Fold this protein.
Amino acid sequence: MSLSENAIGRRLDFALALARDCGTLALDLRRDPARLSIQAKGQRDFVTAADLAVERLIRERVAAAFPEDKVLGEEGGGEAGPLLWVVDPIDGTTNYSHGLPGFAVSIAFCVDGRPELGVIAEPSAGALYRARRGHGAFCNAQALHVSDATGFERCLVDFGYTEKRGTEANLDLQRRLLDAGCDVRQNGSAALGLARVAAGAFDAYCELHINSWDVLAGLLLVEEAGGRTSDFLAGDGVLRGNPLLAAAPGVADKLASVAGIALS
Ligand code: LIP
């Protein structure tokens, strides 16, 4: 299915306004901890009333504005389609539920399975990241570019822990990164980690397995900011997830070798 440049542009304007409203709602809901019910979906994996409320808002707005589009969300699920929104209402839910700033609203829009738009709101910082394929990546009005790192002597990697691969595999990846000379952080939001790679603050983000709603917006930001990424969409990555590596070009091949995650 093809979509006109104008139709994609209208969806970008829509997604920016929606991400701002979702960020405001998430901050409002956290002001009254009594309203913030928290449930465990698994070990170290939670959903709050805010996750559910924000995703409900996204679904309602998309249905009203673009009824022909489908939505795949972390909490409500969904199926693929030619015009597809892939959303994480609150990425970094554990940070959010502990009152920490490191959470984001992540909204991606795909045409025939290819991300064309990525929007990430960082409500605690009043930052709105955006990327449109072929049009660059931005944080508010600032154009973004990945770092010019070329070696591991100052390579800072944001690492995500995935329950899908177990403690030993996650620790082994961290160990390999450290043994190679990188420095590692685990910030708990893939969306924000990828936004920081696009901004050049981190040199890479990696995780052994992660879901599409956490990363599709951020991956487009990194690509539009000049970075390299793994082929996250291979083998039905939209519905099944995949390993993830996104990096500045000067360290990407070496990191792919250390992490054992192939680049596209
Ligand atoms: C989180 C990711 C994070 C990952 C966590 C979790 P959530 O998303 O952004 O990078 O390491 O396991 O998946 O669950 O907070 O939306």
